[in-house]
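Reviewer 2 asked us to include a model.

Predict the structure of this chain.
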Amino acid sequence: MAAIPRAEAQIVAGFGAAPECPYGYYDYAPYSCAPYGYYGPEWFEGDVFIGAGPWFHGRREFNGHVDNRFDRRNGFHGPFPNRGDRRDPARPVGRAANFHGNEMRDGRGHVGGGGGDSGRH
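Predicted model (structure tokens):
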């Protein structure tokens, strides 16, 4: 009786640095930059975007408002920032002018319940 060699499987997944986007990036691949007004103020600590996708670094139970009218999958064709672009100082990230979220997301690609205004302008 011959011994059968044991095979070991190994899966390696790695992600580079989060995209440097002035107003955050979509929480689904290819993680392209999202435009100003897509994310509500809950997604920012000061001027720092807390992340989305595999780079998310908010609390586990986090849910934040988004305005998915600015989502390219919903047909948005307005201006998109490029990676490495700088923020427009006239557009404060933590208080998007007239922001009205219509969906909640957890930063990991999951859609939560509740819409409406985030209450923090």
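Strands lie at 44-45, 48-49, 64-66, 103-105, 111-112. The two ends are 74 Å apart (CA to CA). We have added this to the supplementary material.
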